[in-house]
Design brief:
The protein folds into three domains: 46 residues, Helix Hairpins; 255 residues, HUPs (Rossmann fold, 3-Layer(aba) Sandwich), CATH 3.40.50; 87 residues, Tyrosyl-Transfer RNA Synthetase, CATH 1.10.240.10. Helix content is 49%, strand content 10%. The strands form three sheets. It has a seven-stranded mixed sheet with strand order 3-4-9-8-5-6-7, sandwiched between helices. A two-stranded antiparallel ribbon has the order 1-2. Helix 1 runs antiparallel to helix 2 and helix 8 crosses helix 9. The chain starts with 13 loop residues before the first helix and ends in a 10-residue tail after the last helix.
């Protein structure tokens, strides 16, 4: 970033100005920490003040670290009521568009970067592996600093993966599998450690659960996660309720984050109100802490400079925007992120699949008959009202939930394209497309159930015991 105000700041969007102020603030702190010459520090401070003035002139708002301009990210990172656009926060996803959330607009709104062909090709060159179909099909569509992860990897510097699960019920649904399927692929092709956070404390704070029930759900969800095929020698799964008291490094990082984020900031980022319990207000720091390697001294030998890559749904991005803002101020590297699209509810892409609505979800505990019934009865169709109209005009894959699900779980690209062409042309009817989905999901869920049966309580204990993994740091 140039240090001269010669560039036309008026041409920048509010979000671009916000990012410029943030970057310049980090530079000023770095210069001061490095005891740079006074004239260099003074010039950087002058530039920072100029940027802040431009930001206030453009937005009518004072710059606040970690709190993007309100015209772009309002309460709960949704949109203005006047705009009536997509509403996205860590707990709720809603859109009036039958096609689902407009992810291109969400990239602009959240200030992330699109995963383009060049980045996908670079991942393929770096790993020597064909990109996962989640990348090829845009299911993971957005990122923050993935280029830095690849820079480090190409220079023989390691990184680690961090993802998580909020255990709100005993049974997970198929939408929960996607992040773990992709994370497992990332771990295998890059051969790096993985930490998986089970936020049972969050669910206790937000749901009508006891701590005992939340922890029980965490252990049950861990069985489903382990059944995805993770290597116990390379993976640490932990419950917040359990691990927080066992790791001084973890708690120290929580406190550091808490000190550098104000109540006003978390209200602006997450939409908390004065009536929310203080546990909710402090929780974002707990989700931030696993982004730093020093939270896991047993894995990283106390090193603080190992960068983290977080695969997650883009609804979780607010937590990590906050984390990335705080990281330089506590002397730790910013985490990088890979964002996935939402897995739609059976009733349509206006909302994401939910564990609390049995008819919106296909659970990993469902029988073949239940899967068939749910798909046939509830899966929103992009077909026409009559067979005659469908044959003439064809179906709409953009809104058809069965086709959307197949983009996640049907790995054969050629077969998927054939189905798309046949459905769009009217050759393939809605019932026939649903039959393909049923025949895809039934063996997938049955195979998962068989693997889960092999996961014992002792295996869960092994995965959840703090320990050194099969890596040297």
């Amino acid at each position: 970033m140039a240090d001269s105000p010669n560039c036309d700041l008026k041409s920048l969007s509010p979000l671009q100005l916000f990012e410029r102020v943030t970057e310049q603030g980090e530079k000023v702190r770095a210069l001061k920490a490095g005891k740079a010459p006074k004239d260099e520090i003074d010039a950087a401070v002058k530039m920072l003040l100029s940027l802040k003035l431009s930001y206030k002139t453009t937005t009518g708002q004072d710059y606040q670290a970690g709190l993007p301009p309100r015209d772009l990210v309002l309460i709960n990172n949704g949109t203005t009521k006047e705009e009536n656009e997509d509403f996205v926060d860590p707990w709720t996803v809603q859109t009036s568009n039958a096609k689902g959330v407009d992810y291109d607009k969400l990239i602009v709104r959240f200030g992330s970067s699109k995963i383009d062909t060049d980045l996908i090709n670079r991942i393929e060159r770096a790993t020597g592996k064909k990109p996962h179909h989640f990348l090829r099909r845009g299911i993971f569509f957005s990122h923050r600093d993935m280029d830095q992860i690849l820079d480090a990897y190409e220079n023989k510097k390691s990184f680690y993966l961090y993802t998580g699960r909020g255990p709100s019920s005993q049974a997970m649904h198929i939408g929960h599998l996607n992040t773990f399927i992709f994370t497992k692929w990332l771990q295998e092709v890059f051969d790096v450690p993985l930490v998986i956070q089970l936020t049972d404390d969050e669910k206790y704070l937000w749901k009508d659960l006891t701590t005992e029930k939340a922890y029980e759900y965490a252990k049950e969800n861990a069985k489903d996660i382990i059944a995805c095929g993770f290597d116990v020698n390379k993976t640490f799964i932990f419950s917040d309720l359990d691990y927080l008291g066992a790791s001084t490094g973890f708690y120290k990082n929580i406190v550091k984050v808490q000190k550098h984020v104000t109540f006003n900031q978390v209200k602006g980022i997450f939409g908390f109100t004065d009536s929310d319990c203080i546990g909710k207000i402090s929780f974002p720091a707990i989700q931030a802490a696993p982004s730093f390697s020093s939270s896991f001294p047993q894995i990283f030998n106390g090193k603080e400079n190992i960068q983290c890559l977080i695969p997650c749904g883009i609804d979780q991005d607010p937590y990590f925007r906050m984390t990335r803002d705080v990281a330089p101020r506590i002397g730790l590297p910013k985490p990088a992120l890979l964002h996935s699209v939402f897995f739609p509810a059976l009733q349509g892409a206006q909302t994401k699949m939910s564990s609390s609505d049995p008819n919106s979800s296909i659970f990993l505990t469902d029988t073949p008959k239940q899967i068939k019934t749910k798909v046939n009865k509830h899966a929103f169709s992009g077909g026409r009202d009559t067979i005659e109209e469908h044959r003439k005009y064809g179906g709409n894959c953009d809104v058809d939930v069965s086709f959307m699900y197949l983009t996640f779980f049907l790995e054969d690209d050629d077969r998927l394209e054939q189905l798309k062409q046949a459905y769009t042309s009217g050759e393939l009817l809605t019932g026939e497309l649903k039959k393909v989905l049923i025949e895809t999901l039934q063996p997938l869920v049955a195979a998962h159930q068989e693997r889960r049966k092999q996961v014992t309580d002792e295996m869960v204990k092994q995965f959840m015991t703090p320990r050194k993994l099969a890596f040297e740091f």
